[in-house]
Write a structure and sequence with these properties.
The structure holds 2 protein chains of 2 kinds. Chain A is an all-alpha fold. Chain A is built from 17 helices and 2 strands. Chain A has a two-stranded antiparallel sheet with strand order 1-2.
Amino acid sequence: MSVQTLPSAGLAEGSRPVLLTDSGHKTVNRLTGLNIGVGIGALTIGLWLGVLQGLEHAGLNWYSYLAPGIKTYYQGLTIHGVLNALTWTTFFICGFFTYVVANSLKRPLRFPWINILAFVLMAAGLLLAAYPLFANLATVLYTFYPPMLADWTFYLGLVLLVVGSWVSGYGMYFTYGAWRKENPGTTTPFLALGALITMVMWQIATLGVAAEILFLILPSAMANSAFLVGLFPAIANWNTGSDPLLARSLFWFFGHPLVYFWLLPAYLSWYGMMPAQTGGKMFSENLARLVFWLFLLLSVPVGFHHQYADPGIPQAWKILHATWTMSLAFPSLLTAFTVIASLELGARARGGKGYLRWIFRLNWGDPSYAAQNFAMILFAFGGISGITNASYNMNMVVHNTTWLPGHFHLTVGSATTLTFFGILYWLLPKLTGKKLFTKTLALAQAWTWFLGMLLFANGYHLLGLHHGAPRRSMLGDAPYRAVEWTPYLIETVVGVTFLFISATLFFIVVFGTVLSPRSRRLAQPVEMPVAEPLHPGPTPKWLDTWTPWLAGAIALILLSYGPILYQLVRDMQWIPFAPRVW
Amino acid sequence: MKKEPDTPHGTIALLLVYALIIIFLWSNVYFTMLSRGVTQ
């Protein structure tokens, strides 16, 4: 990779800034495109299977048409969860952040081979996990709780995917480290800082799931493989079973911060990019920085709010985690205020008036902007149902009901995914150098997703709340299915129909843009939207310093997980894995 | 009192509405819980 260096006049030895040249851009763009391309590929399959689930709940079981490819509802559900929630998001985020870090620091990747290695590891992991998923050897849903046991290749594939995302983070840290040396005393640009904080939080959070897979599942999965035992007979002794409670606890050590791994890239765009797309400025960059540090501090020690119904976790620990969970509402509400204020600035600059009429002056005609704004609105409702889920005793009203998928389709399915679609509507033209295939269809995509998700999520929330309909169940075939469920199921099917149309439009826009002829080349290259701060000024040092925040995050995790994990390990009860029932 | 030019009045109005919606929807589930006799 060729890089251009500045003359060293006035700079200390070894601190010459390295600029992002055409060659550096090309490497970054290629890596971004590869990651996002694989992510979209996974989403293509995952979304269609989601449509089939919605139809099944309404009594239209179309899985038989997919046999022998997809054999059951539960296989489809597992593939939907793994491809959408784990694969699409992780690939998109690693690609998007690679782009953001390099372009925000205006520096080429320090060691591009690390980011290439990361992509190779992640892609290999996906391929390895895809085999058992499609061969119906890993129908364990995306949470893969023991005592269910999938084929060993599923777990190894997930390990590679996660390790690859760590390596992607290392590539960013090395780039940041080099930039730091070259720019002593300069405040880290907000976009780069937000991306780096998210990746560090992810590294910490994924330690839980890594420990779960490596110590509690993978050895037994390998021992269950006739192929592996034939090769290495000694591993047959590894089939020792697992402790489901410890495994679930380690999973949720990772599982809830996973939600913030999905959300923080969206926040980054809402804070640092969206205002620029509607003529606004960042209302307060310092508040935005504070929010990201607070998420580093608070994202991990909250996992037990997913385990309120688990009898093996003492109440005091659940209450502690419930408290941290509620405290996460603080940075989220700060985000609501700061982001909306930034957008209001833009709307008023475009002639907006009144207390609420300014909303109509936002840049609704731009699909990139509109998709992200719709994502924010849906997230506002997802936030409310999230506060409800996380309320200790009220959780029992909705626990394991369709309320939950209703909730997380407003978060990962809307706040995250619809924001990522919006980002793609400027990033794709940037990466391909071609105009967006059609703005009208992209706008229609944003509207249909918004309407579809409103109906779908509302139906699921109410069905769970009022009738306790269970989640993760083949409701269309359930003997306990009540006639009172029908209006809600009809509402969800109408929502799913909108979402199906929206997904189709999305793929038309994406593939239309990528495959369009050279004649659709842009006259002017697209630039990454970057919102300027309303009041540019020096950033307090404590908002650009890693040590206290990292130390605080580790201390909170040790405080909130240390003693109880010690207790769970000490009292571990190994039980055999269950035979496959799918 | 003279208004600051950058005061986000619209945002404050919108967030007040949002706070009311939160209270309404949260309370709805809370009263559903009570109606099921959870505290008995």
